[in-house]
Write a structure and sequence with these properties.
There is one protein chain. With 638 residues, the protein is an alpha/beta fold. The chain has 20 helices and 28 strands. The chain folds into three domains: 325 residues, Aldolase class I (TIM Barrel), CATH 3.20.20.70; 137 residues, Rossmann fold (3-Layer(aba) Sandwich); 106 residues, FAD/NAD(P)-binding domain (3-Layer(bba) Sandwich), CATH 3.50.50.60. The radius of gyration is 27 Å and the shape is globular. Bound molecules: flavin-adenine dinucleotide, flavin mononucleotide and iron/sulfur cluster. Flavin-adenine dinucleotide binds next to helix 12, helix 13, helix 16 and helix 20.
Amino acid sequence: MTFPNLFKPGNIGACRLENRIIMPLYPTKYAREGKVNSKLVEFYRARAAGGAALIVLDCPCLDYPRAYKASHQLRIDTAEHVAGLQQLLAAVQSEGARAFMQLNYPHEKAVAAGFPGAQPKGETWVAPLATNMSRAEADEILEIMARGALQARQIGYDGIEIQASYGEFISQLLSPRLNTRRDDLGGSLENRSHFLIRLIEQVKKMTGQDYPLMVKLVCEEFVSGGLETEEAMRIAGWVEKAGADAIVANAGNKQTKYRIIQPGDSPLAPLAYLAAQIKSVVNIPVVAIGKINQPDVAEDVISRGQADYVAMARALLADPDFPRKAESGMPQEAIRPCVACLEDCAGPGVEGIGRCCTVNPFAGHESIWQIQPARQKKKVLVVGGGPGGIQSALIASQRGHAVELWEQTDRLGGQIQLAHLAPFKEEMAGILTYLINCLNKSPVTVRTGHETNQSQITAFGPDAVIVATGSLPGRPPIPGMDADFVIQAREIYLNGPPAGDRVVIIGGGDIGCETADLLAGPGKRISVIEIAPAVLARMKKIPKERLMKRLSDKGVEIYTETQVVSIEEHRVRLKKKDESEFNLEADLVVIGINALPHDPLLHDLRGSVAEVLAVGDAAAPGNLGAALRNATEVALKI
Ligand SMILES: Cc1cc2nc3c(=O)[nH]c(=O)nc-3n(C[C@H](O)[C@H](O)[C@H](O)COP(=O)(O)OP(=O)(O)OC[C@H]3O[C@@H](n4cnc5c(N)ncnc54)[C@H](O)[C@@H]3O)c2cc1C
Ligand SMILES: Cc1cc2nc3c(=O)[nH]c(=O)nc-3n(C[C@H](O)[C@H](O)[C@H](O)COP(=O)(O)O)c2cc1C
Ligand code: SF4
């Protein structure tokens, strides 16, 4: 076997696991009114069927209504809610995976405005729970959590995970920086660990010693004055002694979330060294977590003895079949890779879908999208070999249609060939390799270097044409746009950056700011102009904070609420919100504004081909995730 350690069965306490792959908590937020629904069930069924040995499911509210976050959080307090959870458990367990419940309590409590340390949250004010609960409240919460564990056992979960990381309630108590208490829950490390250790003991007492218990432990906060590994190693010893069956070696807190959910600027498996340190002081299994998204990396972590298990959230979001594919010896490029973009899986996800995945159009659609054979087999022509075209060709072909794909250039991939060239986006190339590999293995006939027009298409005689011809860069109507020192951002990725130290970038969206990141450096003066009040309006929090930090470190100047009046001889004339005008000298002006659909064939072919459909950017310029989802949806219907 290629990965002999990764696919060795193991045990977490009394819980037998088929292999060493755990899916850690990924809050889907799919529940509505706290209830399980088919979207949630099928999302997790797919990950269980794909071979994850253990899944830590969405965390339910243990103290309804007092500690209830929102309708998307699972409830556990009525027979109806419990019945739904049992349906979810049955789906996961019937596929051979184990399911744990995460035991957590909200890290904030509602307080009056003006309360010391209060922060506004919507209409209300909140303060950290760990430092603002009374001693009696702490005991009450501990009992509530322990009762939650007992209920988990009664409902049918295979075990529980205590959340003591992610900047959540218990990790706030553990932190020397965040815990300012002066009672027996604050001060010394023993005191700060008191709640966690007592909780483990109480859970074991209530659920029975044989009920599996894992602790997701913060092992380093990465902030000055925060919890460090040496302290975490001592806590780990106490955690083991109190009866825990495994430790997940997590890190970071709410201020350092990029160390927990690592974006593109992080190496692979950046926290595995912490697992190794914890492993050196305990005898229970240790789980490594964080950007372990390739089978050889996972195998390496285990075979080098850094950890006994690996936890992977986003890799299984991107490809639920990752474990089965790796176990059966399929090559790396057969696994749809998480590209660490933190786009569609993060924050609220995508409008109308919620949390899903940029590279996996089926994530969040498992309950409604199935690849069924087409009732009528058709001759389908896909025009355009970008991600939208490739994906629609693959799905149409899997449904039994005879599919041909024509791409005008010599290479497949469309704009994705450019997307991975910006700093820290190298991993984006993985999805292109994956799609091309799928295409090579499929019956789709591919013709590259084949620019297409209406007469060629009608001569080919397709029953259906999928127009996947992408987008053209937007061109704002600014006087002076035709000057020879004005170029489109895409040209920089295609041909390399032209000479010029003073660069003005028009447009502060993803493409404008990423281009600034690419061009900035010593001796350069890069300015980004954005008409809206803020740049990067569509980028999610973690990648946005990282990119903004790099731009600030590199001295990139950002002008928001600023309009371009004209481009003149090596300068750009700008107008602020207060109507005052100013100039920026420029050797180069780069246009990075919204793209426009490139869809002439859509109109040319209407009337001459029975079915003509646009997908991806040709339908509506967006991003990779939108292109793949839209292409899938169209190809499922054709
Ligand atoms: C620099 C850059 C960075 C980006 N970064 C990201 C990112 O980080 N995340 C993200 O989600 N999205 C990103 N995007 C956007 C994303 O790449 C696009 O939304 C996506 O590629 C659209 O896919 P598509 O298949 O619809 O179109 P395209 O990728 O544009 O593919 C269209 C294809 O059609 C071909 N074609 C056009 N006309 C014809 C014709 N007449 N005959 C034959 N072939 C034709 C083209 O050559 C091209 O290969 C980025 C885009 C750029 C330019
Ligand atoms: C959008 C998102 C939300 C997350 N929320 C939580 C959370 O509430 N609690 C938690 O313990 N981990 C949470 N995680 C972290 C994951 O459990 C995991 O530690 C992290 O994603 C790194 O692993 P990965 O690289 O395999 O995804 C979240 C991850 C993502 C992507
Ligand atoms: S959206 Fe991006 S980061 Fe999230 S799972 Fe998918 S590929 Fe990975």
